[in-house]
Amino acid sequence: MKTTIAAKSTRSGGLRLNQTTVLVTILLVLALAPIVVTDSFTLHSMIMVLFFAYMATSWNFVCGYVGQLSLGHAMFNGMGGYVSVLMFTQLGLSPWLGMLFGGVLAMVTAVLIGLPTFRLKGPYFTLTMIAFAEIVRIWIENTNEFAGIPLKGAEGLIVPNRGDDFWAFQFSTKLPYYYIILSFLAVALVATAWMERSKLGFCLKAIRGDRDAAEALGVNPTFYTSLAFAISAFMTAIGGSFYAQFFRYINPERSMGLELSIDMAVMSIIGGQGTVLGPLLGAAILTPIAEIARGEFGGGLLGLHLVVYGLALMLCVLYFPKGAIEPIRKLCLRYFGGNER
Amino acid sequence: MDAFILSYAVVNGLLQGAIYGGVALGLSLIFGVLRVVNFAHGSFLMLSLYISFWCWSLFGMDPYLSALINIPAMFALGYMVQSVIIAPLIKRESAMVVEPLSALLLTAGVFLVMDNAALMAFGPDVRALQAGYYVPTIVVGGIPISGQRLIAALAAFAVAGGISYWLRHSDMGRAIRATAQNRDAAAMSGINVSSVYAMTFGLGCSVLGLFGALIAPFLPISPAIGLAFGIKSFIVVVLGGLGSISGAIVGGIVIGVFEAVASQFVTATSASIGSLVLFILILIFRPQGIMGRA
Questions:
Q1: Residue B96: per-residue pLDDT
Q2: Residues A139, B272: Cα–Cα separation, whole Å
Q3: What ipTM does the predicted assembly reach?
Q4: Interchain proximity A314–B106, CB inside 8 Å
């Protein structure tokens, strides 16, 4: 065993790619990118790419590895956004702390939802998750006030402007937001890379392969899926708080609608679910389409980018079931050697 | 609570529920045979509503008459979606049953394309169609019953009965049932499985063509209506038992009456949340549904 690994590394010689090298390179390039990119529109688009990469990575953390398709993750995004904004406007609490409360709420919800539903197979799980997310969205959309908390229904919440204030999570330029979401993404990617090689990752993959067989081998599926689901929900909720602070406005439709859930899932699947870098690749492919459609046509061609997402999803399921990362990985293996992308 | 108002709610719930059931028939049929959850189900209904609307608005065609265009158009579209998009997946999978999630993802792709193409083409505006004549409202025991809704509700029963009969007594129906039971055994007995699949998908969608024409006269039409009806159909079909024709109608009526009666006591919003909760409970505790076999 040892000899084959040694043989492999000597064969590929000088330039050897592995997942860690690629991950560090990508993050470094992204960290230096604002030196070159100065115009506000491009920077905004890049923030959106990073935001969706972060959301897709959070989705992938549980769904990609355990092989279940959740189309309800937007509810956690909404929880994060609503909790941090409401704590800021009602209690004056900094969104940096508020987002942790949102994350914890999402975690608790995820465990409560996950316990009964993760047993369901395939489409049944997907439909249940849609139903949970729709319940939360419909309830908020039709509730103006709950127990003295002004939820403002479909109207949505506005974050009052505090100017350039770090503790209020508000900045007058886009650059701080860029670095904040980049560091969130870096943490999420490193967490995924770590999870993949930890006991949790191996157990999740065993459950994906065959739940009953994994259980027979002594893996507790309920415990591991709940743990991964809770972490995934926490990360998604943090993303929701970022979204709220970046746009300084959230409403139920945009922050917890089915469309956002579909975006997260589709990006992971097109990039390659169950891999560390797949969701990032998926977001890097798809988000620019949405941004270009928005920039070129304004509000003129509503839904254009989703038509492209739909076509890309179908092509991907039929011809690249492992996602766009698979052919790239093979190319890298051929030209650079190395073991893992 | 007044008994009269309650019976009024029950009657309206029955009508609405039968319509839900009729709309959900195709979803159940397609799942029963192909084991594919058609995420784009509502989108086919939305498209069919738009065909009825444009036939009326451009050519002044009677909405009921536009069923003659809708049904073949939806059949052709369903047939095409199955044979062009889903068939390659079924061919690739050597196992008995298609990987259910891949099929769901494919139809989710179809949903994204259809709904958003409609949004691009027609815009988000809500449109309404008004037939040139008035379908009389019948009054039974003091309770007014909308004629248009009654026609659609009766059609749901007729279509469900017709499909059940056809599945039992025609050659194609037998082939469809055989394929649903065991794809490989059916193929070995000389049944052309891919043509059966395409026919089933087409048939399931053509039912939506009929209901698009039948409910267009009293329903405001927008691109988002597809998803709303799609989710409602999932609830109905899961409640009745995925794959069961009679279950779709029963599930539809349960949901229709439940929502109509519940909205007499709580807000309509809470009633629709209630039906989602019912849906989750059924999935967790009795996934085979009310009429389905374990």
A1: 45
A2: 10
A3: 0.87
A4: yes
